[in-house]
Design goal:
Number of domains: 2
Number of helices: 6
Structural class: mainly alpha
Shape: elongated
Strand content: under 5%
Largest sheet: none
Mean pLDDT: 76
Low-confidence stretches: none
Radius of gyration: 27 Å
Helix content: 55-70%
Number of strands: 0
Order of helices and strands: HHHHHH
């Protein structure tokens, strides 16, 4: 788990204090390098460094290949980010569902200290009061509206007999 978190930190913050090796360079450095190459090519074209049509054509093909190479590096980095976040999400789901926890009657002393990521159990009467239930319903309705699920929000509002928040 620590390895995945370290990898996620690297992908989220490209310049960490303790860098973790990644297959592709950070997106920011890739784009900075590409911009420098394109500026250099532009300056050569504007300053007359390329006088013949063949040299202009070569310069344009070099610029196009630099763009394609940078695109490939960015795609690789995005694939790494996606794969890392999927692994992290699966790990979180596994911890939240309790699949990685031993049964309550078989837990050894100190298990809770070794698994700080486990979420606490909710009280059984958490949403029993009318105020808490109304706040929960209001929060769900607002989330549905903000996320663009207007039809679902309307159905939810009809089910709970209240107008949909706008």
């Amino acid at each position: 788990m620590d390895m995945e978190l370290d990898r996620y930190e690297l992908l989220a913050h490209p310049n960490p204090p303790n860098p973790v090796k990644a297959k592709a360079p950070p997106i920011g450095s890739t784009l900075t390098h590409l911009a420098a190459q394109l500026r250099q090519s532009r300056e050569m074209l504007l300053n007359g460094g390329c006088t013949t049509s063949q040299s202009v054509q070569e310069m344009m093909s070099l610029a196009a290949s630099a763009v394609e190479k940078s695109k490939g590096l960015v795609d690789d980095r995005l694939k790494e980010t996606h794969a890392s976040s999927v692994k992290l999400a699966r790990l979180i789901d596994k911890v939240r569902s309790g699949r990685c926890a031993p049964p309550l009657d078989r837990r050894t002393d100190g298990w809770e200290q070794r698994t700080p990521g486990m979420l606490p159990e909710l009280a059984p009467n958490m949403f029993q009061s009318e105020e808490a239930t109304a706040a929960l319903r209001r929060t769900v309705a607002q989330h549905l509206v903000r996320s663009g699920s207007l039809e679902t929000a309307e159905i939810f509002a009809r089910v709970r007999d209240r107008p949909c928040p706008r």
